[in-house]
Amino acid sequence: MQQGRGFFKIIITMPNRSTDELFQLIKSLERGEKRQFKLFAKRSAGSDELKTIRLFDALDRMEEYDESQLLRKYPDIRKEQLSNMKASLYRQLLASLSQTKDETNIDLLINEQMGYARVLYNKGHYHQALKILEKVKHTSRAYYQSTYQLQALIFEKKIETLHITRSIENRAEQLASEVEAVTSHILLIEKLSNLSLKLYSWYIRMGHARDEKDVQAVKLFFEANLPAFNQDDLQFYEKLYLYQSYAWYGFILQDLLMYYRYAQKWVDLFELHPAMKAVETGQYIKAMHNLVGAHFDLNNYDKFNEQLNVFESFAESYHGTMNSNSQIQTFIYLNIARINRHFLEGTFTEGLGLVPMITEKLQQYHLQLDRHRILVFYYKIACLYFGSGNNEMAIEYLNKIINWKVDLRTDLQCYARLLHLIAHYELGNISLVEYLVKSVYRFMANMKNLSTVEEEIFRFLRKSFSLEPDKINQAFLLLKEKLQHYEGNPLETRSFMYLDITAWLESKTRNIPVEEVRRERFEKGRKEARRSAVVKTQA
Prior knowledge:
The structure is a single chain. The protein is built from 28 helices and no strands. It has 539 residues and is mainly α. Among the domains are: 21-98, no CATH class; 106-167, no CATH class; 391-539, no CATH class. Helix 22 packs antiparallel against helix 23 (430-446). It starts with 20 loop residues before the first helix and ends with a helix.
């Protein structure tokens, strides 16, 4: 298990996150946006505006925000002025960015039309304002933007209440009916989106259900918060949040078939409403990520590859690259999927080729990335190194998780410590392992993250120190056979999802690398899939 140590050694040192919002905004600008801002700012540039541009250039050159360094380099900017200058620069930047026309951004287009309607109303052109509001409602209905539709209706009601427009007979009854219909949709969207958000939040904090108590708590919460609805009345957003809710629900409970079914419905919803891919690009990217993830969890290699290819094509399209948010989201989810493909194929060493690019992007996007995504990347990279036999580098990445004090993903925190313990065991650091067994066991117990599988692993490790060399192999074999009985148990699934302990045990009993075990499994699975396909064709 010591092969792979000669690989190029890369260490990620994540910079401290700057809390300065102006600095973060400047660092997120693309080259064209910076050029546009300079032109925008210089149109009305007086002496104060020129100072603001100098401040922009100064912040743009900085790697990390350092106010004292800024004031030393630019003595004409006084400390008491800086706060106001930064606020002015921030407003100018937002104003410049808002000048960019994006025909696919429905929010901006509708807001622009609403603004025109208000201008016309204030000038006393009530009929012209109503015409624009009718267009706003039409666009809002076409893209299921119920809140904008309600805003337009409220404005219409105001005009009809204050002025006699005689725009249409029975106008009051029609407006009241439209408001009631839109409001009912908004209320259902609110309830379903709240359910989806709360379930996702539960997963981010806790991970998968750890025991029967968690299972019952999640089930009770889901059933109590799932609103009543008529399936035929559901529009795009109601279905979106409903499918999301069921996807998170199945994933938390480790009901992987439910997770797959609703991730597929989530993606299919966008295929039925292709125009919404431009409106809700982030949701579409998340849908594809979850469908790819579901195929990974179910070991559906062909479907996994098929969906990954769709995802990669989208990532290169206009919508996949149209803004920083889309680029960052596709980077995160595509590369998680690419690492997962190496896990499925048992090509850990080959997968390490992704690490330099991923670490570079983590540096590039460090101001925008949330800590949860960084933790996931660290863990997956550590697994690549462990699978390739490079335990030292696996430990290095696992230490980044262990030493990073975050209150996210207690499951990931626990399995990082367990893999860290096993990597030290592989390196023969026996005295350290004896200490870690107690420490990690105590940590996982405190986090209520000890399943039967983990209990068995700890029991084995404690005993292994006193076993004779000629008996250790048999002990590994017995543990492997014992753990295989738990593979179908839903509450034990996460132990095998996060850490392929049976592959490690088999590698020990056969004295071959983990990578080779996984590769053999993959090849065997491919042969069986081909045989099954032939049988179906003949039938």
